[in-house]
Design brief:
Largest sheet of chain A: 7 strands, antiparallel
Strand order of the largest sheet of chain A: 2-6-7-8-13-10-11
Helix content of chain A: 25-40%
Number of strands of chain A: 23
Number of helices of chain A: 13
Oligomer: homodimer
Strand content of chain A: 15-25%
Distance between the termini of chain A: 49 Å
Largest interface: A-B, 46 and 46 residues
């Protein structure tokens, strides 16, 4: 599953606090999770049935005859991603159970006697199995299935799917393991899944196979292209992974590969893997990320661009790539306990993953532009429907990202939301904690410790939170931004930790090499990126003409049609070009036209009337 | 041919002064034309043979057996474009004659009994002829052949190719004319070619067929997609042409379509066609053109982007699209005599067509970025080799773009270069003219009239030439920028016209909606766009850190490794970012580091050591 089980991982610093140990009662996440349970997952199941994605399994098992495979050859993976989310949520929502059971049975029955499982390569296409690793996503589909099987097993399900997963992994191991040929999928995903299967089963062959797949990239001859042509960079196959110093090619694949490498690292501690990941992480965060945390600058190849190539309107920023970033950074966090990874996880969740899903839970963005004329709208489903179930499975497992523990008895608090948790320390103690906050709309967080004893509580102080204040029972403690503030003491039940994060609006600017953002600012409050939408700003004919001067000009407000959302109200100088010429010497007359300007969180955009949206506002000189 | 024959076109204001009437003796164009004749065309012929492009014809005619069609299905068109250039140049260079004769014979022999001519759809693929207009470029290839046949005929060749063209056009007319089905090619080109064939033969069916193809676009059901899926906008098929108000989709196709529409207009005078072209022209020039005149913002679809979407490093700006723009604007100029079209032709020739060809005449750009890290280099040939022979045929016909005449006895001088011309007026008189100038590196142009008589001389005064001065035999005359300055008088042999165009360096800025160019300037001298290349500026680690203040800081100079080219030398303030962070609040410390900055004409970039190149320089506040 997405939230890995690092309990036995020798090179993990942090151990899991599982999804079911955390309860949210907040007004931000929990309503969205309820929508995920009640609306998103059920409607996705309907789409899956309506688009014959399950019929493809019924065809493979012989239950349905006289029909062709329907859809794209990797459509099985959508069923698996949906299932991974559903089995986690299913614990709390019996209404999902019949759907889950249907999916389990159909998948189980579609597995072949030799362990093979892919509904596209059946019958007339059976002969083509494993003949085109570059394009056909067989390992990718297998990986998503394995993730769902592990999630089902860990969520208190039986071992039916886990056994299917073992047989499938054994089949792949026979073909591509030490006794077989070198091979790696054009679309990475199986690597991280196999490590999880290793964790769930203890079978070291699966870990070895995952490592072997990573090792296979960038070799001569290519184990991905297998004699075919193609863009090796697109497939992260132009150099061996350990020599890769940038994030490149197809963004989702890059993230899944890096997550798989991190999983292998957690088990092996191989320094060369770690060094490569660090170079890639620096390249990504210093040169190839949107201010939203979104990844992928190019439509062509759904790919990372060059350094500083970050167009706003033409941002690709695929929702799945942001999810992949969360997955990778989660594994890096488990390895280190370094707050820079959890900072990025939070940032990406709010500003790059959540925009992929409508507030009603039934519409999705594939691409997430940072500027738009209003034509880009969320869709109920896609032919290539990778993003919708990817968001659903992440939300289903969200509570798994909130806490970790370490072997020294420290509790790490990564994310903040009203709720409670029962945190099991490795030594067997369970510590109840209660959190009171309006985060992410307010920076005051109060945590009440629910047990006596000596343990640590490590609170993430976000890097942006200059001026953060921390206290225990009213006594100040150190809170350095960009670190975990560690409070280790002999706790008494009822002790109150209070963290105050500054929530003044602030402007961020881009590195000057990002040409599109020259003389522009992005507005943040706390962890949330804001944007201007036309629907709130009817008095401004073109939001490109709006110049803002000072974050202190903005104050919190509400807008009637986004209930529960904190908006910002400020003012802006309007400077409209006075000529239609594309190139010339002068475009402006002096202007003194001031207008009110309303901003809303970027994650909430495109949920109302279509219209212009802009993240990067022009800055008044 | 590219330079159309508007002699009999009822809605043309201007009549041709043919290529052979104009002689250039200048140091800019004529050496390039000689390279075109002696190097480019012969080496291209060798590529054509080496890549089996002519063998495909020999296979079709049965002269070569046991071989398959080689290459891309539209490779015939490269032979035709090469031939169009070669037959014009062949007049002056007998060395080209054997190559031309080879091509003519192979083409002629490959034509089928029913007039069909396309070497891809032979034998096993014969059954697939005309079954996929969207993708297979059959009309496109036919169009390029017809252009070459007309060029051959007009260049004093025999009528062999013209007869092949007639049979081919008759074949298409039977299939897609009034007696046939509606149909239009996914890649426009046949339209303009058929109008030219009409002009060369007088056969009105060809004009009617061209119009019918334009009419067929944007209809229901689609005559382009023919029941297939696909992006109608990409093919300019989403609305009828007369309703199209923007330049959109594949840029080359858009330009060829517009040129075809202009050709139909020149013959029919249909107002709705004209109105549509004017809307498209405004959209193109006001919102969708690079400062180079290059067209096409997107790699995906080789397409126009949205309004103001003009990335520099990721510019597509295909050389062929610029050539298409020259073709379209030439036809608009013939219709109107309006200097805005000839301004754009000159601008595009220097700054968007010429960069497509190396100074050695053997290497080509397909894409023309306005900013690059040095990795983008011209190639000797391409699998899809549309651009190389397109440049060659344009250079071969260049002298045809220099002059026109009108029925009132006015001579229009569109372009300036040292040389002479024998200009035939419609009334039968021939006027010799001699031009002395160092244009485009200097703005002084002297024209000596070589005959007595009453006629007009209309000199293009470029729109950028504020402060231009004009005189006849020392007497001042009016010279309004952006118009043709008309001198009508009773000329005496030896009368001297003197035009002085200001050649001080000047800065152009972008409309503020072009986000990438915020706070940047492009440097021009006369018609030439300049850029900074790393090879001249070794002292500046990153040209993105160079800020320029004033065009008057630049003066003309030379660089040793671009002989004959006027460079610029100025100074620049260096401001380097002090942090690697991608987003933050501050990136600069005050700087006073001044460095010399050398600029060279953009057309000449990437002819020396690879390195960073930048057109849009940062402007110091």
């Amino acid at each position: 599953m997405n939230v890995v089980d690092s309990t036995g991982s020798p090179f993990a610093r942090l151990r899991p606090v599982p999804t079911e140990a955390v309860t949210l009662t907040d007004a931000f996440w929990e309503p969205r999770r309820e929508i995920n349970r009640r609306v998103t997952l059920p409607t996705q199941f309907r789409h899956i049935e309506d688009t014959s994605r399950l019929d493809n399994f019924r065809r493979a098992s012989g239950k349905k005859t006289g029909i062709d495979f329907v859809g794209i050859y990797f459509n099985d993976s959508d069923v698996y991603k949906w299932l991974e989310g559903a089995v986690v949520e299913g614990r709390e929502d019996p209404a999902l159970q019949p759907m889950i059971e249907t999916a389990i049975v159909e998948i189980q029955d579609a597995q072949q006697a030799d362990g093979y499982l892919n509904t596209y390569f059946m019958f007339e296409r059976e002969k083509d199995r494993w003949t085109n690793l570059r394009d056909m996503h067989e390992m990718y589909c297998a990986g998503h299935f394995i993730q769902s099987a592990v999630a089902h097993y860990r969520s208190g399900g039986d071992d039916r799917l886990l056994n299917v997963a073992r047989r499938l992994a054994d089949h792949m191991d026979a073909k591509y393991g030490p006794e077989g040929e070198p091979g790696a999928c054009g679309h990475e995903e199986a690597e991280l899944a196999l490590v999880e299967l290793y964790r769930a089963t203890g079978e070291t062959r699966y870990l070895a196979l995952a490592k072997r797949m990573i090792d296979a990239r960038g070799q001569e001859p290519s184990a991905v292209l297998q004699g075919r042509g193609g863009d090796r960079r697109y497939h992260q196959d132009h150099v061996p992974y350990r020599q890769l110093s940038e994030v490149t090619g197809h963004a989702v694949r890059m993230m899944y590969l890096a997550a798989g490498a991190a999983d292998v690292y957690l088990e092996t501690g191989e320094q060369a893997l770690w060094d490569a990941m660090m170079r890639q992480w620096d390249n990504m965060t210093e040169r190839r990320s949107y201010v939203s945390g979104g990844l992928g600058a190019r439509y062509e190849g759904e790919a990372f661009g060059k350094d500083y190539e970050l167009p706003n309107d033409r941002a690709y920023s695929e929702t799945c790539a942001a999810i992949g970033s969360v997955m990778w950074n989660w594994r890096l966090l488990l390895a280190t306990g370094d707050a820079r990874y959890s900072d990025l996880i939070e940032h990406t969740l709010f500003n790059a993953v959540l925009p992929g899903l409508s507030l009603d839970g039934q519409h999705y963005f594939y691409q997430n532009p940072l500027e738009n004329d209003g034509a880009h709208r969320r869709q109920p489903w896609f032919g290539c429907a990778c993003c919708p179930p990817n968001v659903a499975r992440l939300l289903a497992q969200l509570t798994g990202y909130f806490y970790s523990v370490d072997d020294a008895g420290d509790i790490f608090v990564h994310l903040y939301a009203r709720g409670s948790a029962q945190i099991a320390l490795p030594d067997g103690r369970t510590i109840p904690m209660t959190v009171t906050t309006e985060y992410p709309f307010d920076g005051e967080v109060e945590i009440t410790v629910g047990a006596d004893g000596d343990f640590g509580v490590c609170l993430r102080v976000p890097e942006w939170a200059g001026g953060a204040r921390l206290s225990v029972n009213g006594e100040d403690a150190d809170a350095t931004p960009g670190t975990y503030a560690r409070l280790r003491r002999d706790w008494k039940t009822g002790d109150v930790i209070r963290l105050e994060l500054p929530f003044e609006p602030r402007f961020l600017r881009s590195h000057p090499y990002v040409s599109e953002n020259t003389a522009r600012v992005a507005v943040f409050v706390g962890p949330l990126l804001y944007c201007a939408e036309k629907t709130d700003n009817g008095e401004i004919p073109n939001l490109q003409d709006a110049y803002v001067a000072d974050p202190a000009d903005f104050e919190k407000t509400t807008v009637w049609d986004l209930p529960g959302v904190v908006a910002l109200r400020g003012s802006t100088l309007i400077q409209s070009p006075v000529t239609m010429r594309l190139y010339g010497s002068r475009f402006f007359e002096p202007s003194h036209a001031m207008r009110p300007l309303t901003l809303v969180p970027y994650y909430a955009w495109a949920n109302r009337d279509p219209g212009q949206m802009i993240v990067w506002l022009r800055e008044q000189e």
